[in-house]
Amino acid sequence: MTEPHTHDLAMRMAELARTLASPRDLNEILSGVTAAAEELIPGVDTAGILLVGRGGTFESIAEITALPHELDELQMKYGEGPCVQAALDDVVVRTDDFREETRWPNYSPACVERGVLSGLSFKLYTADRTAGALNLFSFRPRVWDSEAETTGTVLAAHAAAALLAHREGEQLRSALSTRDRIGQAKGIIMERYKVDDVQAFEMMRRLSQDSNKKLTEIAQQVIDTRA
């Protein structure tokens, strides 16, 4: 390999290393999952991820086109469909031809009207408040095989890991923020009333009980009084 080629390769590798090392947001990661599904699984014409929360709330994310969101809306409206079923119950839900699909009498004809003839949905995870599914759609019938299911399962596992990591990260950030606020409030009380940290915390705890407010609310009130 010539020296210029070696230099170009080194520069490219350095660029890739910086890209991989930099933090990416959740939607970017999940968009990469749906893009990979379109690239790696023959027959995928569009894809998206559905998150279903309590009380019928839902969110469509990482869609390749607007169609997955439209299909998600239909499923939530009718209370039926493969994406919802995968999100809440089954690990893999496969439809080879919506024109012959009888499990969802309202949703299936709506898919056909929009040119969607087959679908493949994979459960992402189930948490206390949210369920999710990776959903693949094709404009042709009978395009899925065992290899498509295997590849989709791997991609769904990656998406699930990203979602769980994001959720854990949010919980950690919330916990750190709570700890910092309580610590800051304790410091203010210690300085203002000349008490130690144990006594300062006890004062906040009693105020929390007496006012029926969360400890974090009391801490924020203490912090606000310093301004």
Give an overview in words.
There is one protein chain. With 227 residues, the chain is an alpha+beta fold. It folds into two domains: 1-160, Beta-Lactamase (2-Layer Sandwich); 170-223, Winged helix-like DNA-binding domain superfamily/Winged helix DNA-binding domain (Arc Repressor Mutant, subunit A). It is 59% helix and 15% strand. The chain has helices spanning 3-21, 26-40, 67-78, 82-88, 107-113, 146-193, 197-211, 215-225, and strands at residues 46-53, 58-61, 92-95, 118-126, 130-138. A five-stranded antiparallel sheet has the order 2-1-5-4-3, with helices on both faces. Strand 4 (118-126) and strand 5 (130-138) form a beta hairpin. Helix 2 runs antiparallel to helix 6, helix 6 crosses helix 7 (197-211) and helix 7 (197-211) packs across helix 8. The longest helix has 48 residues, at 146-193. The chain is elongated and about 75 Å long. The termini are far apart.
In terms of per-residue confidence, which ranges show pLDDT below 50 for 5 or more consecutive residues?
Answer: none
The shape, in one word, is elongated
Terminal CA distance: 66 Å
CATH class of the largest domain: Alpha Beta
Please bin the fraction of helical residues: 55-70%
Largest sheet: 5 strands, antiparallel
Mean pLDDT: 82
Major β-sheet strand ordering: 2-1-5-4-3
CATH topology of the largest domain: Beta-Lactamase
Quaternary structure state of the chains depicted: single chain
Name of the CATH superfamily of the largest domain: Transcription factor LuxR-like, autoinducer-binding domain
Order of helices and strands: HHEEHHEHEEHHH
